[in-house]
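Hey, I'm writing a tutorial for new members on how sequence and structure tokens pair up, and I'd like a real worked example in the thread rather than a made-up one. If someone can provide the structure for the chain below, I'll link this post from the tutorial.
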Amino acid sequence: MHDVRARRPGKTPRPGPGRELAARLLVFASLALASFAAHAIDADELIRHIDRLWRGDTSHSTLSMTVKTQRYERAMTLEAWSRGKERSLIVIREPLKDRDVATLKVEDNIWNYLPKINRVTKVPSSMMSGSWMGSHFTNDDLVKDSTFERDFRSTISFQGERDGRLVYEITSIARPDAAVVWGKVVTQIEQKTLAPFVARYYDEAGALIRTMRYDQFRTIGERVIPMRMTLQPQDKPDESTVVVYREIAFGVPLEESFFSLQSLQRRR
């Protein structure tokens, strides 16, 4: 027979040391998860995280760009460097006829270098919405990505499951005094990896103009990076520009002087 003894009224048995430890660990884990969740769902932090995905403090990459339009198809191999959000350099390596054509960005300014005539030209503000190298990317894309947080107000417009995937949806509305092409940008981010998988760009009237899709995710260090980006204009469903990162490295030694007009012509 089991020895069953009555407990004294008003007395509560004290948990053993194992239970106390488990309870403390549970509280600690709950607080840690709550802290992470609060951090992860901050819209501005997510915007900064996305911007740093392909940059880091410094970066060096090789990538391909394939442009398909109703009139032509072209493929390019590019080499790119960046230092923070304010400085970047892109040089075309192939095809031969475009070799060493380069684009330099320093803060809100863009210059193009044309080796055939050995000339550097600054892109005027009136050309910021123009196509970059015949692609569906604009000159504005090269500049305004560095001022996205400044020129837009971003909020979490949706958080939860969508199409079987837990997502954050960030809606970014252009500030009234911002000189930007887009009136609104809606970006969907996977909660688990904090990697974007689709972004939709709207004009000031609210019409969808283009869609960017991200895939071919790869873990590099602590980042989960989409290695392929497909940009498609809404009014031309048969056209697209596809960018694929072949290699990308972060933390490479790059001084500010690397991104100067004086050195632009030497990146051959």
